[in-house]
Each structure stands twice: as structure tokens, then as C-alpha cells.
Write a structure and sequence with these properties.
There is one protein chain. This protein has 593 residues and is of the alpha+beta class. It has 5 domains: 165 residues, PAS domain (Beta-Lactamase, 2-Layer Sandwich); 47 residues; 95 residues, 2-Layer Sandwich (Beta-Lactamase); 71 residues, Signal transduction histidine kinase, dimerisation/phosphotransfer (DHp) domain (Helix Hairpins); 152 residues, Histidine kinase-like ATPase, C-terminal domain (Heat Shock Protein 90, 2-Layer Sandwich), CATH 3.30.565. 53% of the residues lie in helices and 21% in strands. The protein contains 17 helices and 17 strands. Strands 2-1-5-4-3 form a 5-stranded antiparallel beta sheet, with helices on both faces. A 5-stranded antiparallel beta sheet has the order 7-6-10-9-8, with helices on both faces. A hairpin with a 2-residue loop joins β4 and β5. α13 packs across α15 and α15 packs antiparallel against α17. The protein starts with a helix and ends with a strand. Bound molecules: adenosine-5'-diphosphate. The site of adenosine-5'-diphosphate has 22 residues, from α15 and α17.
């Protein structure tokens, strides 16, 4: 619409200019032609008047009215003009257009302007509408002189129809010329306007693309240096600059987005009304939500955590940084450290930035460490208390009682053994946990190793009336740290005997697993309650504390097993039925065979 209206404006401006110029020319031309035509007619009429005056001024004519009348009518016919002869009193003496009889009845002509002009000594001239003939007439009057004395007035009148004919023919030509020129002007104006509009249209089209965010377009301007060319060049420069800036911002945004999403910490940005503007991937994972679900919604509506929501509200209302621990109740329970900073927009709080650390693991490790220290202290305290008690008893005189003192010393010895075993196990564990321990892997046959372990436990098994057996393919070999695997077998077989019943059995055999070689240590012992199975490999975890202690257990055997197998990238497990027995197994990955 704008395009066409501007074009029309241009066309009409050109058209109006040409029309106005031609109009003026036509008007002045018309006036000029009219003037010149009249002048020509006037001078011709004057000449005719002078000639006729010559014939009329003779006395024979002036004093002979019938003759004068005839003369006027003859000459009038010949020159095509009306001839009137008037005396000095204004009385008409003859008129070529009026019958002779009616002449005396004609109005006095003294009042006619052309007549009074002659009486004042000038040549009379007047254009007047003739009420007799109903047309414009040109009147020319000259004095009739007899012997240089004014004797009357000769008036010639010519209808101006001929002038008007000439003028209207000229006008027709002018109008036709005018119309033709205007038509041509219109066509030329359209072509010119089109040529002028074309670059503007290009600019409009490119600008509309710019407005839609497409800055890849450039306006073609043929290197023209006029105002439109310069405008196009400026717009092109602007588009290039914006395109460059947008690309720069987009790259920066991508970097920020990548950082934002790869952050381990969860980040939530809200506006001042607590509507979520943005969350990162860590938040999606932490709260089990998707970005699309929460962005644009109120925090409480989208993320639904009243603890964090209150912190955000508090940080924004106090305009201060707040850091607090928040517990996420939904299973699995999580402990989060929420750091909320108000975001300022022109010195006013305009939103909030919350950074959330998942400190569940840190807290769990802290608890494990605390429990571990408590457990170790407790484990050490019990034998130490006993040792101290017996030593004090001995010092207080029991030393003299030979029989009892030997028993006491044996008990002290047992407790020292326990302390030793505990310290050994603790050292072993800490050594493995520090990850400094490197495995010295070799390829070895399992059957001889198991046989050796069985031999070591032979007497202990006999004492408990437990039958030891193993069934392993002769060629079964694994690639592992032999000493460590021996320790695993020792711990498992030891437990299998310890927690067995009289006339029970312990069997070691192999099985296949998709992950590698599986070794099973099966016993017919007390078994493990299902509720304890998930925790059985934890340090100091025991099903029956008293029984374990009584049997000289440290509560660390299975955690050492687990560590060793995990160092081999393998896995451990147990299948057990309370009262029937247990099957402890470990898998050494095939890749390490
Ligand atoms: P402990 O030194 O107490 O034996 P472990 O870590 O070796 O410590 O074992 C942890 C606990 O697991 C034991 O106290 C015992 O309750 C249970 N347990 C281990 N092996 C067996 C088994 N073969 N049969 C029944 N219970 C077992």
C-alpha cells in the first residue's frame, strides 16, 4: 500500500508540475493569439473604414441620404461588415444592416463609446455585445472629414464570430496538444517513478527481512552514490554489523549455555515475582523435571520445594545472599546446599539466582567417617578395657593365684590378638582405600590356590566338624593378584566355617557369568537375614555382633573382600536363606583373565 501510494504521489507530482506549466503556457498563448488576432482585425477594419470614409465624405454622398444608404449597403455586403454613418449630433444617416425607411427611427448614437471617442478626436474602438444581433461585435469608428472639417462619423462593426472561430480552432489545437503532452507526461512519470521506486522497494524488502531477524540479505544498489544509494549502503553496513554482533552474542550464549548445562551445581534463575526464567540440566536431574515444564511458571508451581522457595523469597526481600541446607524429602532423600543471591536491576531487586549443590554424598561420607571412627574406637575400646581390667586384677594380687593368672593372661593374649587382627584389617583397608595399592596380576590356576586355603583351614574345620570340599575345573585360570585373591578366599572360607553349624559343609566351586569367572563359596551355616544382606559388605556391619566378636571377627572381612574384588573391576554378592546357609560369590572380569 505504502509502496504504491508513494509511487502515485511521485507520478502525480510530475503530472501536476507538467500540467501546471503547460496550463500557464496554454493560457498565455491563448491570450496572445486572441490579442494578435484582434489587433489584425482591428487594423484591417481601420483601413477599410478609412477607404470607405473617402467615399462617404464626398458632398454628393453625405447630402444624399438614399445614395448614402445604397453605398453603405453595397460596401457592407462587399467587406462583410456593418457600416453606419452618423452625423455629429448622433443621428444615424445610413446603416448597411437597417432598411432605409427604419433609419430615421433609430436611437441616437451619441452615447455609444466609440462615437464619443471620435468626437473627442480619437479613433473609436469598442467591443460590445450587440443586443440586436445577439453576438459580440467589434466597433471601429473614424471621423468623416470634409475639407479637413469633421462632418460626421463612420462606424464599422464586425461580428467577432470569426475571431472566436480562429480562437476556438487555436484552443482546440492547444487542448489536443496539452492532452497529448499530459498523456506522454503520465507515461514518462510512471516510468521515472518506477525507476526511482525500484531501489526504495529493495530497501523496504530488505528492511522487512531485517525486522524479521534475517540479516543475511544485502540491498543491491549498483554502487550508486545518491541519497538512496547511500541509505542502502548504510543499511547494508548496519545489517552486517548486527549480523556479526548477533553471531558473537549467539556464540557467547552457546558457551554460557554449555557451561550452564555442564555445571554439576543446579542453577535456577527467577524474576522478581519468583517466576522461573531458566534452570540448568542439573536441576532437571535433581528434581526430576523438564525445563519446558517449569520455565515461565512460579517456582512453587514448577519445582515445588517450599524450603528453597522460602529462601528465594527471603533473599529477595532482604536483598542479601543466603546460604542454607535444605532436605529434599522425595525418595531418594537428598541433602542440598542452596545459595541464593538476589539479582539487581538498576539497584532494585529484579530476580534471584540460586545455586544448588547436592551434598548428599558428602554428608553420607561424613556420616560413614563418623561412624567409622566411632566403630573403630568402640572395637578398640572393648579389648583394651578387658586387657586393662585383667592387668589391674593381676597387679592387685591375682598374680599370686597361679591358676587364675594364667587364665587371665590367656584372655589378655586373646584380646591382644583381636587388637592385632583389627589393626591389620584396618591397615589393609586404609591401604586399599588410599588407592595406592597396585595389583601385581599374574595368570594362575585357581584349584591349587583353593586347595592351599582349604589346607590352612583344615584343623579349624575339623574342630567345628565342618567338611571342606572344592570342585574346580583343572585348567581354570584367572588373571589377577594371587595374594589378594588368596585373602578373599581366606576371608570367605573363614566366615563359612565360623558361621557354620556342626556337621555342616563348605564348598568352593566355579560357575559361569556373562561378566567373567564366578567363584562361589557355599556353606550350610546360619545364613543371613534378607534385611541384612544389602549392608553385609559394609565395614563393621555384623548380623550378630556378640557372636562375631566371640568368634574373633573384626567386622571388616567382607569389606576387605569387596574392596579387593572392586580393585579387580569385578563384583561380589551373596545369596542366602536364613537358617539354611549362604552362597558368597565373586566375579573376576573376563577381560582380566
Ligand atoms: P566378621 O569379622 O564379623 O566375620 P565380616 O565382615 O567377615 O566380619 O562379616 C560380617 C558379618 O557378616 C558377620 O559378622 C556375620 O554376621 C555375617 N557373615 C559373614 N559371612 C557369613 C556366613 N558365611 N554365614 C553367615 N553370616 C555371615
Amino acid at each position: 500500500m505504502i509502496k504504491s501510494s508513494f509511487k502515485l504521489k511521485l507520478i502525480f507530482s510530475y503530472f501536476f508540475l507538467i500540467f501546471a506549466s503547460l496550463g500557464f503556457i496554454a493560457f498565455f498563448l491563448d491570450r496572445h493569439i486572441e490579442e494578435k488576432t484582434l489587433q489584425g482585425i482591428e487594423s484591417a477594419l481601420l483601413n477599410e473604414a478609412r477607404l470607405i470614409e473617402n467615399q462617404v465624405s464626398v458632398p454628393s454622398a453625405l447630402n444624399n441620404p438614399p445614395y448614402l444608404d445604397k453605398l453603405c449597403k453595397d460596401l457592407g455586403l462587399r467587406i462583410g461588415s456593418r457600416i453606419t454613418v452618423i452625423n455629429l449630433e448622433g443621428k444615424v444617416l445610413a446603416d448597411s444592416e437597417v432598411p432605409f425607411q427604419q433609419v430615421p427611427g433609430m436611437e441616437n448614437h451619441l452615447g455609444r463609446p466609440e462615437v464619443s471617442e471620435v468626437l473627442q478626436g480619437r479613433i473609436g474602438r469598442e467591443i460590445r455585445y450587440s443586443s440586436t444581433l445577439k453576438i459580440d461585435m467589434l466597433y471601429m469608428a473614424v471621423p468623416i472629414e470634409k475639407n479637413n472639417v469633421r462632418a460626421g462619423i463612420l462606424r464599422l462593426a464586425l461580428p467577432l464570430t470569426s475571431v472566436q472561430k480562429v480562437l476556438s480552432a487555436a484552443r482546440k489545437t492547444i487542448i489536443v496538444g496539452l492532452l497529448f503532452t499530459l498523456g506522454l507526461a503520465f507515461v514518462l512519470a510512471s516510468i521515472l517513478a518506477k525507476a526511482l521506486i525500484r531501489p526504495i522497494n529493495r530497501i523496504i524488502y530488505a528492511s522487512s527481512r531485517f525486522a524479521k531477524g534475517d540479516f543475511s540479505r544485502r540491498i543491491f544498489h549498483q554502487g550508486s552514490h545518491d541519497e538512496i544509494g547511500r541509505l542502502a549502503a548504510t543499511l547494508n553496513n548496519m545489517a552486517q554489523e548486527i549480523e556479526y554482533k548477533i553471531r558473537e552474542v549467539a556464540t557467547k550464549n552457546q558457551h554460557l549455555e554449555a557451561i550452564f548445562n555442564s555445571m554439576i551445581e543446579g542453577v535456577i534463575v527467577t524474576d522478581r515475582s519468583s517466576k522461573v526464567i531458566s534452570v540448568n540440566r542439573a536441576i532437571e536431574e535433581l528434581f526430576g523435571i523438564s525445563r519446558a515444564q517449569v520455565e515461565g511458571k512460579f517456582f512453587q508451581e514448577g519445582i515445588r520445594n517450599s524450603g528453597i522457595s522460602e529462601l528465594i523469597a527471603e533473599a529477595m526481600s532482604s536483598a542479601r545472599f543466603i546460604s542454607k541446607e535444605v532436605t529434599l524429602v522425595m525418595p531418594p532423600q537428598k541433602i542440598l546446599q542452596a545459595n541464593v543471591s538476589p539479582l539487581f536491576d538498576q539497584e532494585k531487586v529484579g530476580g534471584s539466582l540460586t545455586v544448588i549443590h547436592d551434598i548428599t554424598e558428602i554428608r553420607r561420607l561424613e556420616t560413614v567417617r563418623r561412624d567409622f571412627v566411632a566403630n573403630v574406637s568402640h572395637e578398640l575400646k572393648t579389648p583394651l578395657t578387658s586387657i586393662k581390667g585383667f592387668v589391674e586384677t593381676l597387679l592387685e594380687g591375682a598374680l599370686d593365684d597361679k591358676e587364675n593368672s594364667v587364665d587371665f593372661l590367656r584372655i589378655i593374649n586373646n584380646h591382644t590378638d583381636r587388637l592385632n587382627a583389627l589393626v591389620d584389617d584396618l591397615l589393609e583397608l586404609s591401604h586399599m582405600e588410599s588407592k595406592e595399592m597396585s595389583l601385581s596380576k599374574t595368570k594362575f590356576s585357581l584349584a591349587p590356590l583353593v586347595k592351599e586355603v582349604m589346607t590352612v583351614f583344615g584343623s579349624q574345620a575339623k574342630k567345628k566338624k565342618v567338611e571342606l570340599s572344592f570342585e574346580l575345573p583343572q585348567g581354570l585360570e584367572i588373571f589377577a593378584d594371587k595374594d589378594k585373591i588368596e585373602q578373599v578366599l581366606v576371608n570367605l572360607v573363614n566366615n563359612a566355617i565360623k558361621y557354620n553349624k556342626e556337621n555342616g559343609f563348605v564348598k568352593v566351586y566355579s560357575g559361569q557369568s556373562k561378566d567373567g569367572t564366578k567363584i562361589v563359596v557355599e556353606d550350610s551355616g546360619s545364613g543371613i537375614p534378607a534385611k541384612d544382606i544389602p549392608r553385609i559388605f559394609e565395614r563393621f556391619y555384623r548380623v550378630d555382633k556378640a557372636r562375631s566378636r566371640e568368634l574373633g571377627g573384626t567386622g571388616l572381612g567382607l569389606s576387605i573382600v569387596k574392596h579387593i574384588i572392586e580393585l579387580h573391576s569385578g563384583s561380589v554378592g551373596v545369596e542366602s536363606t536364613e537358617g539354611l546357609g549362604s552362597k558368597f560369590f565373586f566375579i573376576i572380569p573376563a577381560s582380566s583373565i
